């Protein structure tokens, strides 16, 4: 019985369900955490529906807490909870609850960074270190943002609901960011197994729900296409012994052709609307990678040029440098890295190491690999960097 896996899979759904029942996100989170503590003490084997067990236990804990309160609001909330069915429905299929939670946490009254940090914590069950890695900032900063956002929701009385149609566009950018970052954490986790299938699956499911809710928003379709095309490559991402396999070395016959076809169709739909945005361009890049037996790198570079113009971030510049290396060579790409500042991000020195190795600058490449290994937090990625370093050293000795 692995309670940690249940926590990762069910936490966000349970908090969303309890938030609907309680109308209080902070109380919902505390109740769910208490329920998982109880599960740790009581479970010998997994119950038939772990999510429902957690919700029932959390609801009972919340009732106990509300009974200790003396305010009229607390008595009213207790009455509502007591009239809920004794056995909640299956948590897994619940969809509206999670969309409500996303839109509540992404309310425009909250600071932009606080919105996504709070939603990643509540919906994805991501820990503070994982969110900090997504933002490339200090953990203390993330913790402060989450605390402030919860307080703001409580003090401002922000309603727990999917907003009216005319309110949706203002909420959309942070919602898309949340789903994008949730999927990224699932595709390359901060620690533990490289891939967290539960997060990837949930991000895609919610992206589909969002596309059904807002079918005329090309960036919603673009995000869904991006997630599907990335997910399509997952079966080839790890080798027989669990080692990381880079894109260039992947067995393309293992890629999910149904997801690729769906993703390509969504990209074509976006192109017909002619309202380009960052997620659509990233989806188009993924479409090029999954079209045919080899990647059309000049086309990828042209798309990265467009993306950099729309979203001039260091991460985009770093990814563009990889395309530059394939089109114009490692020396030009290495020069492009010089102005990129990403402190603490292991993929910058890792990319530099690859380029230096291709240029035959082995001593500098080994130093860059060491730097990347020191910054990498996922053991699978660290092992991949170590393998590259070892191969470089072995080649040097035999040449």
From TrEMBL:
Residues 102-153 form the RNA polymerase sigma factor 70 region 4 type domain. GO terms for molecular function: DNA binding; sigma factor activity. GO terms for biological process: DNA-templated transcription initiation. It comes from the Bacteria. Signal peptide: none annotated. Keywords: Sigma factor, Transcription, Transcription regulation. Residues 171-270 form the DUF6596 domain. Residues 7-70 form the RNA polymerase sigma-70 region domain. InterPro entries: DUF6596 (IPR046531), RNA_pol_sigma-70_dom (IPR014284), RNA_pol_sigma70_r2 (IPR007627), RNA_pol_sigma70_r4_t2 (IPR013249), RNA_pol_sigma_r2 (IPR013325), RNA_pol_sigma_r3/r4-like (IPR013324), TPR-like_helical_dom_sf (IPR011990), WH-like_DNA-bd_sf (IPR036388). The keyword Flavoprotein does not apply. It holds the Pfam family DUF6596. Belongs to the sigma-70 factor family. ECF subfamily. NCBIfam families: sigma70-ECF. This is RNA polymerase subunit sigma-24. It comes from Micromonospora sediminimaris.
């Amino acid at each position: 019985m692995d309670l940690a896996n249940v926590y990762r899979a069910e936490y966000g759904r349970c908090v969303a369900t309890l938030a609907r029942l309680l109308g209080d996100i902070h109380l919902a989170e505390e109740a769910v955490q208490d329920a998982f503590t109880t599960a740790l003490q009581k479970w010998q084997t997994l119950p038939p529906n772990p999510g429902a067990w957690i919700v029932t236990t959390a609801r009972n804990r919340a009732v106990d807490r509300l009974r200790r309160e003396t305010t009229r609001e607390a008595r009213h909330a207790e009455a509502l909870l007591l009239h809920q069915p004794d056995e909640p429905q299956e948590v897994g299929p619940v969809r509206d609850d999670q969309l409500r939670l996303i839109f509540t946490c992404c309310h425009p009254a909250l600071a932009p960074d606080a919105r996504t940090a709070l939603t990643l914590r509540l919906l994805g069950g991501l820990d503070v270190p994982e969110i900090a890695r997504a933002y490339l900032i200090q953990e203390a900063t993330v913790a402060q943002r989450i605390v402030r956002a919860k307080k703001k929701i409580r003090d401002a009385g922000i309603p727990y609901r999917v907003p009216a149609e005319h309110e949706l566009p203002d909420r959309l950018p942070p919602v898309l960011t949340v789903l994008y970052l949730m999927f990224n954490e699932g595709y390359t986790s901060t620690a533990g197994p490289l891939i967290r299938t539960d997060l990837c699956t949930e991000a895609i499911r919610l992206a589909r729900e969002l596309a059904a809710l807002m079918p005329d928003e090309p960036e919603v379709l673009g995000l869904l296409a991006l997630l599907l095309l990335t997910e399509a490559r997952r079966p080839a991402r790890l080798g027989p012994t669990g080692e990381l396999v880079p894109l260039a070395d992947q067995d393309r016959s293992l890629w999910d052709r149904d997801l690729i076809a769906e993703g390509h169709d969504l990209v074509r739909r976006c192109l017909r609307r002619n309202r380009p945005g960052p997620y659509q361009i990233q989806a188009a890049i993924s479409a090029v990678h999954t079209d045919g037996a080899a990647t059309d790198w000049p086309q990828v570079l042209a798309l990265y040029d467009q993306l950099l113009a729309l979203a001039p971030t260091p991460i985009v510049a770093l990814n563009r440098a990889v395309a530059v290396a394939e089109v114009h060579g490692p020396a030009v790409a290495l020069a492009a890295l010089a102005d990129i500042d990403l402190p603490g991000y292991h993929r910058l020195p890792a990319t530099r190491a690859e380029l230096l190795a291709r240029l035959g600058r082995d001593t500098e490449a080994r130093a860059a690999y060491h730097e990347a290994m020191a910054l990498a937090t996922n053991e699978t990625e660290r092992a991949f960097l170590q393998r590259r370093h070892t191969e470089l050293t072995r080649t040097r000795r035999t040449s």
